[in-house]
Amino acid sequence: MGFTLQSGRIEDLDTPEAHLAFIRSQWREFAAFAWEKYLKEGRGGIVVDLRKASKSSGNLQVPTFYIAQGSERLEKLGGWPDEETATSVNDYDPEQDVIFIFLRLNGDVFNYNVSDELTPRDAYRARGQ
Length: 129
Prior knowledge:
Layout: E1 2-6, H1 16-25, H2 27-41, E2 44-49, E3 54-56, E4 59-68, H3 72-76, H4 83-91, E5 97-103, E6 109-115, H5 120-126
Parallel strand pairs: 2-5
Antiparallel strand pairs: 1-4, 2-4, 3-4, 5-6
């Protein structure tokens, strides 16, 4: 999964305020994607990799993907980036919440537990699945 945004600079997307605006602007798609992956792979989070974002034709391409707890992909990465992220993934309610893990340009990692009136399950159903 990846998103294309009309923006000037990748750096403009790398603030906590911009992270939350990005999540909110794509909530329906993110929530449905997270529920689908949860059903297939189990608990996990959506990684937004700003470090590998690229600019093409004036648009930003932002790689996003799901990593499940206990998955081979997570193992290859050496586990969750920190204890806070591991706890968030372990404790969230997949029917209500989505965990987002932002890989920031400066090497930091931020995670968010986000909910909305449109639940992940309902977003998935609305997609016609």
